[in-house]
Amino acid sequence: MGWIDGVLKMKSVDWHRSNSLILVGPSEWARHFGRHMYFNTMLNLDDWDEEADYIVLDDFNPDINKFLPAWKCFFGGQKEFTLTDKYRGKKTVHWGKPMIWLSNEDLFKHLNLEQSEFIKKNCTVICLTNKLY
């Protein structure tokens, strides 16, 4: 797949800004490309690993403003940003690496025009009709 060769296999020092991948449809494929963080439905800062090569966000609520307030930082590959977790203080993370967003429904149905344009500019979007394996 072109995104894997073009983004994940690059060294992080070569990234100007990371490009994220959005997969809509059935897939368990995203967790097979090296050291990564995996979060299902919500973040857990206890599991944050700055040494990971990429992050997988699986089945998050598509209301990204409410359930992923730092969504632009993830989708846009920000190098440094602040996160918070329920009952925890804020934490500055150093990242700037690729994200894979997995969802069974089309994220764009839940976005406004500004969000849609941002994601189209910063992400590769693939809609799957069949499993990749």
UniProtKB/TrEMBL annotation:
Superkingdom of origin organism: Eukaryota
Entry protein name: Replication-associated protein
Source organism of the structure: Anaeromyces robustus
